Fold this protein.
Amino acid sequence: MYDGPVLDNHLHLDPINGRGVEAAEAFARAGGTHLNVLNKPSWHLVGDVEGEDGFRETFDLTVEVTEKADERLRGRAWPVLGVHPALISQLITRGYEPSEAAELMKVGIDVAAEYVAEGPALAIKSGRPHYEVEDAVWDASNDVMRHAFARAAEVGCAVQLHAEGGEAFEPVAEWAEAEGLARDRVVKHYSGGYVEGLIPSVISHKDELERACEGDWPFFMETDFIDDPDRPGAVLGPKTVPKRTQWLAESGYEDALYRAHVETPASVYGVDTEATLSTDSV
């Protein structure tokens, strides 16, 4: 049995509409110890955002539920805050031009960077649409993403990216470096077992996890649990990472699990999942 830290690198807790802390408790009962809790898209939590105050309201809800989750874990829960890239489509539907939408989204990134600098948040969330958009929207989205890289470099944190599928992210890694952020502090959320240029946060399907374990690159495990009562268990349920961790341990991947749950969190986020792991049961 694997008895080290178990981190789900990308999970949502919705204190308004979803299970909230109860989902974190289910994670802990299954053997999970550490969580990176991403804020849900602002329109799911607070409705239409017009400026800084709407982003703060979104982030505060996530910080509060993460603090409550932290109390239920043998390890730690950290907020990862930012702007979902699909917000640009929401704003355009409301009448914004792509460049105007990008400027508002940058305000959200600036607020997220403030939460990192002042302590509650661990990292910034950004990215670009994972669906087809017009060139102007794509360019504006890349502008927002590069802004996130620049702000992360300033406050000394990592960035989690929501983006399209595939493995070819070398150009994005080069953009991060151009903005002063090391490529090994940029994480591709919802990735397969390998990503070119960035750190993969592997969606916890068995085949992709085996691919990551059999390589020698840093990686995370995640569920992208969305905490939506209309879609219980989507994308994957909160028990998945602990269960997959034990399955991988039984398959002989203990060294890779140490990489995913200890070494990669330390190198990317600067956190010590072993030192923050209590021996007491929850």
Strands lie at 7-11, 34-38, 77-82, 123-127, 159-162, 186-191, 199-203, 220-222.
